[in-house]
């Protein structure tokens, strides 16, 4: 994937437009960012049926497997885990979701879109985790469709399936849902602006039907609160965590569908 990254520099202006007209608010925020400090949370060794999930910020989570494989999602080199990930995923909506300069020590850099156009398919196994993607379309500045500009990345580990929706801009088709399969935990963008509007996002979550929904991308004022209130009205439980770290396992999944709000690390 580093050859694809090498060609990104000349396309970064084009890629920055891929989030559609409403993406400007996300981009303006990104332009004002300074590098986030490493998260303070450290976790003990995981049992073989556990997965560590730490919310780093924006759309970046650190996923740690029982064998110690660390993955950073929508890696942008701003919100970074405290430890170097072995795998990073990226999406091309704009620079809050990718970086042109990932650390050379990162073993696998998985782009969720093809800078040259066309498909970018991944199905990678790293020790005890399988990582695959489902590409979706995104909007351009003028409302045009940018084909396959986003990926939903799925992480299969410790008898759990975890999906990161990326910069999702449209509802999912029956074919999309069939390819996703059964999903236990979803990371969902809840900005209600540059990605899906709230009504459409609720439809997607209902269709995917995870046990846990973890909000991300909540950069607009009140967006996380609006999402939580809406999901509570839809019958979801709500858990507000004081820690950015959640230890997930098949045996501790909630009985009912639950929104789990993690603070940024």
TrEMBL record:
Coiled coil: none
Keywords: Hydrolase, Signal
SUPFAM superfamilies: Metallo-hydrolase/oxidoreductase (SSF56281)
Alphabetized GO MF terms: hydrolase activity
PROSITE patterns documented for this protein: PROKAR_LIPOPROTEIN (PS51257)
Record's keyword annotation contains Phosphoprotein: no
Signal peptide positions on this chain: 1-18
Name of this chain's protein: Metal-dependent hydrolase
